[in-house]
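Please check this record.
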Amino acid sequence: MKKVVSFLINDLKLKKDDVIIAGISFGPDSMALLYILKEIRKKIPIKIVCSHVNHNVRKASKKEKIDLENWCLKNDIIFESMIIEKYSDDNFHNEARNIRYHFFEELIEKYQANYLMTAHHGDDLIETVLMRLVRGSTLRGYSGFSSIVSYDKYKLVRPLIFVTKDEIIAFDKKHKIPYAIDKSNYKKIYTRNRYRKHVLPFLKSEDKNVHEHFLKFSNMLISYDDFITNQVNKVFSKVYYDNKIDINKYFNLEELLQTRVIYKILEDIFQDDLMLVNDRHVKLVRNLIETKKKNSYVYLPHGKRLIKSYDIIEVVESIDEVTSYEIELIDYAVLPNGRHLEVVDEWDSNGNDICRLNSEDITLPLYVRTRNHGDTMSLLGMNGHKKIKDIFIDKKISVSERELWPVVVDSRGIIVWLPGIKKSKFNRKKSEKSDIIIRYY
C-alpha cells in the first residue's frame, strides 16, 4: 500500500486543511482507504468526512452503518450518511450510483471539499475495461477509469487504483481494520461478478501484476483520447449546434472524427453518463445520418428522439406528444416506451420476451410500429386471427400503455410478434430452424 500513500502525498500533494469526502461502504476496500487517510492525517492535518450510503437492499446494512459510525466517532472522523428509501428505475445499479453521487456532491458543497475519494482498485479497473470491451464503448470508456478526474470545484480521486483486492484484504488484516462483506458481490446474476470469478483468476495466473499492465493500457488510451478530443472540439460546433446535426458538414469530416463526433453528441445528450452510451447507439445515429430517406427518426434511452429532415437531424428531448411510430428493425432499436428490441445470436429463454423467426416464412425487412386500427394477429397454436385490441384487453394492458406498445411486422405489414405479450404462428421453437432471434427487454 506504499504506492497509495506515495500517490496521495507526492503526486496528489495533499496539504494542510484539505477537505476530503470519502465514499465509504464499510467494505474492505473503502475501509482500507479510510484507514490510510486517517494515518496520513497524523502527518498532514487534513479534514476527513466519511460519506456512507445505505442502499437498503440487505438486512445487514443497518448494522454496518452503526459499526462504521462508531468507528468514525472513535477515530475523530466526521460521519455523514443517508438511506435510499425506494427505487424507481429498472436499472438498480445505475439509479443507486446516481443517488450516491448526488449525495457526495451535496457534501462537497456543504464542507467546501477539495476532493471526493472512492475505493475503486486495480481489480475493479480490469473488470471495467473488460466489460466495456465486450459491451462496446467510447475510447475513453474502454480506458475504464482514471486515478484523478478534475471537476470545477473538486477532484474525484481513486487512490487504490494501484493495488489489488488481495493486497487490500492483507492490509486490512495486518492493521486489524474492521469491515463487512457484501455477499451480493458473489452473485452470478451480476455481469461484473462473473468477470471477477472466472476471468480475473485466469489473468492473474498468467501474471500476478496484470493490474499494472491494465493501468498502463488505461493511461495510454486516456492520452490518445485527449489528443483526439482536442481535434473533435475544433470541429464539433460546426457539425452540432442548437441541438441539430448538420449532415453535410458531418460528411466532410474524416471517418475517425465522424465516429467521435457522434459519441460526443450522445455524451452531450446524456450529460456524460458513459453507461448509457455504447456502440449500438452510435450505430443507430450513423444509420440515421447515412440513410437515403429524407425524413426518418430513431429513439434513444430516456425518451430522447433524433428526427432527420433532409440535411438536418434534430434532437428532441421529450416524447410526450408521440402517439405513433414506425422503425425499421435492423439489429437494435430503442422504443418510445423505454424498452429495447435487439437481434441476438442466441438466447436461452423461450418466453414472450423472445421471438424466433425463419426468414423464409416472412418478408424482410422487419419493422416495429404502434398498433393500427383493426390490427389482427395469427396466434401461435391457434386457428384464425385475433384482434390486437382484444389481446391487450385479455392481458389487462392499460390504455396508456397500448398507445406505444411495439408491434413487430414484416414488410408486407403482417404481424409476426407482439413483444412481451403474444407470439404469432411464425414463431419457431428452439429445436426448429430459425435465423432471426429478437429479444425484448
